[in-house]
């Protein structure tokens, strides 16, 4: 049987949160700024991935979907300083945007997973504080849905399987491409145009925010203060402790900071502590609050932070210095940053429009359930 998209076209045109960005004045940059170019898409696979993305059955208790935290109206982030998490826990980092994922060099604020979206999807679904799903159970749930059986076959995957689910969701993510930004269409305001000149010149933002996504996908320590909610809220602290134990962080029960990229190489001198990936600057108007732990509510606060030379940290990159920007120049940079946001990706070509029956009543709090 042929699956109809019901007028939902996946045609894309050319076109994040400031979670760990750096403004390094005077440094050279590798790639010029430019528009986002949409990748080639397999429509049947992307349509399947779209439905999976909005399906709560992909979580252990069928209470949350990928879209619960990556919300279309919030630029595929969630509008919170610190993310929610699987029922019974709370998150300890800001939810990043999923827009323009096809071009990302690595994933998560610490950069612990490379370019393979299959791996990212697997971790996001199976990690206990994210969606806490056993992939064997997920496969059986999907196989019970007649529409999924039809859609997997139409996508060329054959019988529904967890491996195909991990392929279909990334195909959908590749449809989330920036489009219609004033920066791409040549319709920036005069202030934004002045801001771009500052971005590329006096402020040196382009040192790390280069290329079409405006990020070099590298990790730096810029002295962002810790979010105290992580340590004062037992459920957030519990989640971080479990993550830290699994990732091999020493003395994890006593530290009161997010070590960031230290978990990748574990240098003995702790030189990677507090380093976080330089984020994309695309779609910033939708993805506040900013930084890896949501410490800034507005773009002006972020620019003022860099203008002051970042924060205080023993590992702070020595190139982070006061920028000497006037108030008007800071406003112009904010105008340029705002010009990097385009049309919201909230239409039926991106959002599954129909209710998805789960047949699995959600468990409100799994910690209260006993056999």
Attribute tags:
single chain, 371 residues, mainly alpha, Cytochrome Bc1 Complex, Chain D, domain 2, two-stranded antiparallel ribbon, 2 strands, disordered N terminus
In short:
The relative contact order is 0.22. With 371 residues, the protein is an all-alpha fold. The chain has helices at residues 43-53, 66-69, 117-126, 135-143, 146-154, 162-173, 182-185, 190-200, 229-232, 234-246, 262-265, 299-307, 327-338, and strands at 219-220, 276-277.
Give the class-level CATH name of the largest domain.
Mainly Alpha
- The residue fraction in helices comes out at 25-40%
Determine the structural class based on helices, strands and strand pairing. Answer: mainly alpha
**What gyration radius follows from the Cα positions, in whole Å?**
21 Å
The CATH superfamily of the largest domain is identified as Cytochrome c-like domain
Strands across the major sheet, in which order? Answer: 1-2
Q: What is the overall silhouette?
A: globular
Biggest sheet record: 2 strands, antiparallel
Q: Low-confidence segments, ≥5 residues, pLDDT <50?
A: 1-30
Per CATH, which architecture of the largest domain?
Orthogonal Bundle
Order of helices and strands: HHHHHHHHEHHHEHH
Number of spatially distinct domains = 2
| Strand content range | under 5%
The pLDDT mean sits at 89
């Amino acid at each position: 049987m042929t699956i109809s998209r019901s007028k939902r076209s996946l045609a894309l045109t050319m076109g994040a949160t400031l979670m760990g960005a750096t403004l390094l004045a005077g440094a050279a940059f590798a790639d010029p700024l430019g528009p986002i170019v949409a990748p080639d898409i397999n429509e049947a696979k992307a349509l399947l991935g779209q439905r999976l993305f909005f399906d709560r059955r992909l979580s252990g208790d069928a209470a949350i979907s990928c879209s619960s935290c990556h919300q279309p109206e919030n630029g595929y982030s969630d509008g919170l300083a610190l993310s929610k998490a699987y029922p019974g826990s709370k998150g300890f980092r800001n939810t990043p945007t999923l827009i323009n994922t096809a071009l990302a060099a690595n994933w998560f604020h610490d950069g612990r997973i490379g370019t393979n979206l299959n791996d990212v999807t697997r971790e996001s679904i199976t990690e206990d504080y994210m969606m806490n799903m056993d992939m064997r159970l997920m496969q059986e749930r999907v196989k019970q849905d007649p529409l999924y059986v039809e859609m997997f076959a139409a996508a060329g995957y054959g019988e529904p399987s967890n491996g195909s689910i991990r392929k279909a969701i990334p195909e959908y993510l590749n449809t989330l491409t920036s489009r219609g930004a004033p920066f791409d269409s040549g319709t920036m305001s005069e202030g934004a145009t002045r801001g771009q000149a500052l971005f590329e010149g006096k402020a040196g933002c382009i040192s790390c925010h280069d290329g079409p996504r405006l990020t070099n996908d590298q990790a730096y320590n810029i002295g962002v203060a810790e979010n105290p909610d992580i340590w004062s809220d037992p459920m957030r602290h519990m989640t971080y402790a479990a993550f830290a134990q699994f990732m091999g962080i020493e003395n994890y029960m006593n530290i009161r900071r997010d070590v960031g990229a230290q978990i990748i190489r574990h240098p003995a001198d702790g030189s990677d502590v507090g380093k976080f990936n330089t984020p994309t600057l695309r779609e910033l108007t939708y993805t506040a609050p900013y930084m890896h732990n949501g410490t800034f509510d507005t773009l002006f606060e972020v620019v003022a932070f860099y203008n002051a030379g970042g924060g205080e940290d023993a590992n702070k990159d020595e190139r982070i210095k006061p920028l000497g920007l006037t108030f008007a120049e800071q406003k112009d940079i904010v105008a340029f940053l705002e010009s990097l946001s385009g049309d919201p990706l909230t239409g039926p070509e991106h959002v599954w429009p129909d209710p998805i029956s789960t047949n699995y009543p959600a468990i409100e709090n799994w910690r209260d359930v006993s056999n």
